[in-house]
Amino acid sequence: MAPLNEEQLDQKKRERKEQIMRAALKVFADNGVKLTKISMIAKEAKVSHGLVYHYFDSKDEILYESIEWGTEENRVAQVFNDLNESGKSPLEKIKAFTQFAFSESDRWVTQSVFRIMQHLTVADGLPAHISELVNNTGQLYIEALYPIFLEGQKSGEIIQGDAEELLGVYLTVLSGIMADDPSFWKENTEWKVEILSRMISVR
After folding, report:
1. Same domain, yes or no: 59 and 78
2. From which residue to which does any coiled coil extend (predicted)?
3. Contacts of 44 (CB under 8 A, 6+ apart)
């Protein structure tokens, strides 16, 4: 078998690093940042503990690069483009996004990033560069959800008031639930999303 050339080696390295970042996103999302250990990421990625350190110097570096990777290539924008083209009403879009964010599917990278954001939003003592990344990433979701909330208010589906404040309350509730008990979303997700949606909907 012929040895790999430089381009093939670089491709193999990128794939291995992506494999680790995919695993890291899942582990961080399921366990929260504080409880996640390098060994857990290595196990999920099916690689050795040492190989993880070959690509990353620390858990913070894995977290930062994984979130960056998970939000690049317009992944978040695509999620909302799909929602906006779905023909759903504003409230149904919010329900669909909430269920999407906390359920497993083929697009779990974006879901995991959102769930990690919920953990980090209420975390203390974050390094400055991670805190900035959290704020920037969170803004992506706010900018995408805000027009849906406004549309829902105009259509009479969503309660009146400051739409930005209402969105903030909704995301804060989701953050609190995910940071406190991620297993909350493991069962009866659709029913729980329905309950949460009632806090913003006109009954």
Report:
1. no
2. none
3. 23, 24, 26, 27
